[in-house]
Amino acid sequence: MGYQIEIRHFKYFLAVADELHYRKAAEKLCISQPGLSRQIKQMEEILKVKLFIRSKRKVALTAAGEYLKGEIEFILNHLEVTKKQLKYISQGDFGEVRIGFLGSAMQEVIPDLLLKLKDKFPGIRTSLEEVSNNAQINSLLKDKLDMGFVRLSRVPDGFNIKPVYEDTFSVVLPERYPLLTRDFEDVGQLSEENFILFSQDYSPLYFDTIMSICEDAGFTPKVSHKSVHAQTIFKLVENNLGVAIVPTSLQFGFQMKVKFIELKKIPQKAILSVVWKEDNRNPALRHCVNLLLEQASNAN
């Protein structure tokens, strides 16, 4: 009897690929372990490839299994997205655009975009998720996001990236720090302080840029703490645990006992870019991108 690959095979495979344990995967799926083993064996026979290496001690994915895991995650997620989009479109909407962003994008860029969408394309729904640069790229690859707002200098092949907002940097100091704006010359005056930065994993471009700002001033900063949240950084500064350098737009929306001194004389800028996959098939995405690029062009 000839068999065909069905959606259930994909779900069974992913359960084992995630758990790397047949009993745990079977419990997760609410089926018997022998039944799950038969389904995986059937899938391997249909595809004519071995997906798992199974021994008494462990279960591991083969190279083919690793590749298939990524593809199935994309396929199943895309099916769910398609079902949701169909529902919206049947109700007369354009559909939904799923947006990833760094916190600084929420200060100006995203609110402006949402207001313009509401005005020009009220039938476009949006969902927002604050995640790191790398997490946005991974989610875009797996079709879990349609577009992202990142601080990256490079993206993988198959992606488009366009700058949409240029910001200055500002030093963040405790409110009572004995340095006034009129007395500030450059960050070299802070060379003996501990610095609190956004994590390098969260935003490599930001981290490298801050390092270059300090190095231009003749010192390498002593980094005492790292975080992925601006509020955490400001709280640490507020409690005299260090100083920070952040995009200037981040000073808005926080009521904390810190002060900001804008770095107007340095060449480095905080560039925020929009990124999306070239082959994204969401019909509402193009409207969002066009509005963003129009917004960025008018700002320049």
UniProtKB/TrEMBL annotation:
Keywords: DNA-binding, Transcription, Transcription regulation
Stored PROSITE patterns: HTH_LYSR
Domain of life per record: Bacteria
Gene3D superfamilies for the chain: Periplasmic binding protein-like II, Winged helix-like DNA-binding domain superfamily/Winged helix DNA-binding domain
Any Pfam family hit: LysR_substrate
PANTHER family associated with the record: HCA OPERON TRANSCRIPTIONAL ACTIVATOR HCAR, TRANSCRIPTIONAL DUAL REGULATOR HCAR-RELATED
Family note: Belongs to the LysR transcriptional regulatory family.
Protein name: LysR family transcriptional regulator
Species this protein is from: Arenibacter antarcticus
